[in-house]
Amino acid sequence: MKLSNIGEFGLIHAVQKLSFQSSPDTMIGIGDDAAVLKIAPATVLLATTDMLIEGVHFDLTYTDFYSLGWKSAAVNLSDIAAMGGKPRFCLTSLALPARIPVEAVLDFYQGFTALARKHKTILVGGDTCSSKDGLVISVTLLGEAKKQTVVPRTGAKRGDRIFVTGTLGDAGAGLELLKSGVRGRGSGSRGQGPGDRSQKPGVRRIAFHSALRTPRSALIQRHLRPVPRVEWGRRLALSGCASSMIDVSDGLSSDLFHLCEESGVGAVLLSEAIPLSRSLLKSADFLNEPPLHYALSGGEDYELLFTVPLSRMKRLEALHIPVTEIGRITAGNEMFLMNTVGRKTAVRPTGYNHFKRTRNCAKRPT
Ligand code: ADP
Ligand code: MG
Predict the structure, then answer these.
(1) How remote is the CA of residue 249 from the centroid of ligand 2, in Å?
(2) CB under 8 Å to 201, separation ≥6 — which residues?
(3) For 131-156, what is each residue's pLDDT tens digit?
(4) Mean per-residue pLDDT for 281-301?
């Protein structure tokens, strides 16, 4: 059978079934943002790993090495955030083609450690080898949480309200702008922006302080340097308000699908409520698709998508985190998008799926 017949998630389900072994110390194994493993009576170890492959997840034409390092840390930190945990230690493994200069590797680690340090996460090891083809990056992140506060993907119940932090679609739109050659005013004033092949890899750096002056540059920044919502994830978990949570790595339609599938529920999203940034709306003329498309299918926003039972809404309000209510959980297993006059259309998971080509924008780590 071809991998494309079952897709990435079909394959993961098959591995999960084949290797399943119940253990009293595995609270959550395959199937969530991170594994949850008992290490002390009240404390759990969170473990997650993600690979970034040149030509699949990133293209060195559109990124600098500092941003690549930053993003490699961000995608893993985001999975710990989605469990409501605290990141602690990480390991990085690199398979390096000979064409990559030492400076580029060091620039990668500057970006990686800049973000890791912000979250008090320490690099404790990894592996380095040569690659005959593309650059391969693998990051493993270990975190911790109180056993009682972990927020799994499985807890959503009918009637729960669906929330998302921040805004959606920016990163997917940012990648499209990069691919179409738009870099935004200001990029390249300190080193060249991505896409300039005249520079050796590793010495390019994007000057975001000035680049941020334009909406398009802001979208590009969200693609290159995503901000994992670690603090918000922890506060949501500690408050006990969230019944389920996942990070938006694949796009809202796919990540809500994962959450619904794991919880055995359906969902109705209000199309008008989905939070879109001013930068995305202002850049609409430069994009091939309407802004909502990037929110549903774009991916790589690394915002948190979570559900809250009505009885716990006050706890969420007390946190003062920038969140938007975007719909509600329903019985059944279908997802719908509802417009302002109440018309419903079915939503399919249209985010990135390795082996199945379901979209043509941001690719995300597995
Ligand atoms: P995320 O997008 O949050 O990183 P993934 O969709 O990559 O999550 O993975 C979903 C679940 O499947 C996770 O629990 C992950 O650890 C597990 N998983 C993915 N690939 C494999 C594999 N090859 N072997 C074992 N488990 C895997
Ligand atoms: Mg995740």
Answers:
(1) 6
(2) 60, 64, 65, 100, 101, 104
(3) 999 999 999 999 999 999 999 999 99
(4) 95
Nearest-atom index, ligand 1, CA of 48:
16
For ligand 1, atom 20, the nearest C-alpha belongs to 12
pTM attached to this predicted model: 0.89
Q: How far is the CA of 307 from the centre of ligand 2 (A)?
A: 15
Q: How confident is the model at residue 351 (pLDDT cuts 50, 70, 90)?
A: confident
Sheet holding 35-40, edge to edge: 26-28, 35-40, 43-53, 136-146, 86-96, 122-130
Contact 253, 305 (CB under 8 A): no
Nearest residue to 252 (alpha-carbon basis) of 145, 348, 325, 138:
348
Q: What is the pLDDT of residues 225-262, one digit of tens each?
A: 999 999 999 999 999 999 999 999 999 999 999 999 99
**Residue whose CA is closest, atom 5 of ligand 1?**
366
Q: Considering the chain, what is the average pLDDT of its residues? A: 90
Tell me the backbone φ, ψ of residue 185, rounded to 5 degrees: -60, 140
255 lines ligand 1 (CB under 6 A): no
C-alpha to C-alpha distance for 243 and 87, rounded to whole angstroms: 21
